[in-house]
Amino acid sequence: MFSLSWRPLRPSSSFCLLFPCCLFHIDANILPMENTNALCKPAIDGTSYMTLSSMFAQAMKTCKALQSMVDAQKIHARLVSVGLDSSVFLQNHLLDMYSSCGSIGDTLQVFHEIRSPNVFSWNNLITGLANLGQLGRARQAFDEMPKRDSVSWNTMMNAYFQNEMSEEALHIFISMRRDGDCNLDPLSFSIGMKACASLKNLALGFQLHGLLMKFDYEWDPYIETSILDLYIKCEAVDLASLIFERMVAPSLFCWNSMILGCSKSYGVEAALKLFRRMPEKDIVSWNTIISILSQHGCGKHAIYMFMEMENQGVIPNSMTYASVLCACASLLDLDWGKHLQARIVRSWFSSDVFVGTALIDMYAKCGYLESATRIFNYLPDRNAVSWTSLITGFAKLGFEGEALLLFNQMRLASVVVDQFTLASVLGACSSKKDLGLGVQFHAYTIKNGYDSLVPVANALLTMYTKCGSVEIAKLLFSKMPVRDIISWTTIMTAYSQIGDVDNAHIVFKEMPQRNIVAWNCMLAAYIQHGHVEEGLKMYMAMLKEDNVNPDWITFATLLSACGEVAALNLGNQIVAHIVKEGLNIDVSVANAMVTMYSKCGRVEEAHDIFHSITDKDLVSWNAMITGYGQNGKGKKAIEIFEGLLSTGTQPDYISFIGVLSGCSHSGLVSEGKYYFNSMMKDHNISPRSEHFACMVDLLSRAGLLSEAKMMIDEMPSEPGAGVWGALLGACRIHKNIELAECAMKRLIELDPSDSGSYVLLANIYAEAGKTDVEAKVRKVMKERGIRKNPGCSWIEVDSRVHVFTVDEANHPRIKEVYTMLDEVIKKITEKGYVNKTSSGLERYHSEKLAVAFGLMSLPSWKPISIIKNLRICADCHMVMKFISLVLSRDLIVRDANRFHHFRGGCCSCRDYW
């Protein structure tokens, strides 16, 4: 017999005396007045047992709904007083009533006093104990039942499922199937399917689906809903679609589930299409689609959908406002966020924790931390999400110290710290690159058992990687019990950070699944470390993947690679792919296109892209200013800069680097001085070393060496190598040996291993006729083991990049190249070209070989574009001018310092580089 401890609270005769008929009262909401009078009369006055039982049962049902313990005891007492306390029917209702009121003791007491508990008694007890969180006692009662029906099995199964113990629920299902006395019913299958869905066990779900088809339950509406839910949660949306399309009248739950499933598997467009098909929509439908749009980066569309919802008379709830505020946060749309806040304040949602948290997140992401803090302080109830939103806001805006103080306040407020809070705090440590503090938090996570949770472990990986402790990150990764795609991507980034591209690729290959983020990470690793060809092969491999579509980051990275190697043909192909995907309207992609065309010397194409950008940001303007400046079109750079100012956009230090560089390459001295002075005077931007380098280069090129030296001496910070290098280069042009020696001395102090400075000084001495001093410089280079970087040039032909070095011997067509170059030299010599160098070593420089290959391989109408890793020498520069004149070919050479556009015997640099 079932035996559990209970509290002896049975109403005795003395207890009943406390409730005489004149004092006993049942609330009108529990029992009608005429029934109250009937209960107050003795049972022998003629009222039938059936009538009294029905009245008491109805009173107990109403009391159950109200969950009133006081009324429950009154009803129980009256039941005893009229002598109906031994009725099993009413005792079962007592069980149900007491369990609903939360009284375990009274529930157990009533069950114990049932002389012959029937199956309903046991089922009520199991349900009551399970609802009260006494799952162990419920299972004990289930095991001791003398006889079970389908309700018993389903009750126990549902109890496990409701308490998030789906595996145990499935064990009950299997035991029920094996029990010969009880058959599975639709409810059994429904609970079983839900358990499979929660575990995402698609294989077992298939088996249950096959079994219920055998029982011919497949067409039951509840079963159809459970099957649909299973397939959606197991991400088998194709199968869910088959079930959904054959439903005669899908419920709103089915529609809403399918919309959510479609968004995850097929994207936003598929979800919207299904949403438009709905015959009717409830608030859940609208909230689902708004949330989907917001989470998939379609913030504007989410706001439009919210407006459409209101136009159709649907009243938003707290979840609606939270989702729309999330959209505002993603768009950084503070105006709409404030508008929503005003509406929220006028409603009762102003104190809702979910809405309040969304407001905190919106203001924090928009940079208004004071407003976010004020809302946080206003909230009557703050949960872990509220704290985490504010902490994350401070951390991401660079206030890591304040974020850590908030975390300490959260702990003092006795709010339970969750994994997401710790991840945010560790993110603050990563931003500060504070390894010591990060290690302390690592110890805290271990102490509290959070270190094995995936979000926390990922945050630790990121922290150690950003703090430069890659070895610890690798060890941590190797010991992670569970890894997600973020874990794999983070460790791949760690390898890339130290330049270990090979191991990064090994990690990439070992990943159990790869999304677009992983592909982009590997692509960037190759390109950022100079493995452009491997990066482009990675892109081609990505296109062959079924479930991976390039995004704006992919294209921006690829365009950057094309710009670095001047792979214009491939860049054009990628631009065509971008247009096909509709991503050319993305401002980040458009900016990358502008930069790519500028670096390929096609500044006109870059300007066309720039002009097509509807919502230009500061990066757009800077890309175009820099593009014109690098290509020697200083006046156009100034024109774009003035256009930037006319829009009211505030320029930054990069804007001024672009315009000053343009002035420098074009010899616009007065304009350069004006904009340099305007930086601090009009825009409160302190000049950096890069700005001084531009000005020194500008003044030096114009022959104002004394003024350039004076500017260096007056710099507020120690001049960098770029500044002294600009002065040294000008000293060669103007043959100022004394100033060159001064600049060289500073350069050696800054970087004693830089071969370029030694070579430049040696050339200055050689051109001044001081060959003995030149020899000493080269001897010093040899003694110190300093070698000149070998010249290297590359050219793109037929979507392949061909690389040439000085005196190249490995190219498959090198003999033809040398023959072509000799023929070209002969032709331009006839037109007046003279090699003024005594050694003649410049004859087969890499850029000459690249040009010869271009003449062989490219049609006459196509410009020849070349990149060189060093500065072009004087002889090669002269050869290019003659080739452009004699052969009527446009040449574009991008050397280490600038672009040279050769046309008709002239160069855009005006022979000053």
What's a concise summary of this model?
Strand 3, helix 49 (874-886) and strand 4 form a beta-alpha-beta unit.
Task: Describe the protein.
- This protein is mainly alpha-helical and 913 residues long.
- It is built from 49 helices and 6 strands.
- The chain has a 6-stranded mixed sheet with strand order 2-1-3-4-5-6, with helices on both faces.
- Helix 17 (283-295) runs antiparallel to helix 18 (299-311).
- The chain is elongated and about 130 Å long.
- Residues 1-44 have low confidence and may be disordered.
What's the topology here?
Elements: H1 13-17, H2 33-40, H3 49-66, H4 69-81, H5 88-100, H6 104-112, H7 119-131, H8 135-144, H9 150-162, H10 166-178, H11 186-199, H12 202-214, H13 221-233, H14 237-245, H15 252-265, H16 268-277, H17 283-295, H18 299-311, H19 318-331, H20 334-345, H21 353-365, H22 369-378, H23 384-396, H24 400-412, H25 419-432, H26 435-447, H27 454-466, H28 470-478, H29 485-497, H30 501-510, H31 516-528, H32 532-543, H33 552-565, H34 568-581, H35 587-599, H36 603-612, H37 618-630, H38 634-646, H39 653-666, H40 669-683, H41 689-701, H42 705-713, H43 721-734, H44 737-750, H45 755-767, H46 771-783, E1 792-797, E2 800-805, H47 814-830, H48 846-857, E3 864-868, H49 874-886, E4 891-894, E5 899-903, E6 906-907
Parallel strand pairs: 3-4
Antiparallel strand pairs: 1-2, 1-3, 4-5, 5-6
Helix pairs in contact: 3-4, 3-5, 5-6, 5-7, 6-7, 7-8, 7-9, 8-9, 9-10, 9-11, 10-11, 11-12, 11-13, 13-14, 13-15, 14-15, 15-16, 15-17, 16-17, 17-18, 17-19, 18-19, 19-20, 19-21, 20-21, 21-22, 21-23, 22-23, 23-24, 23-25, 24-25, 25-26, 25-27, 26-27, 27-28, 27-29, 28-29, 29-30, 29-31, 30-31, ...
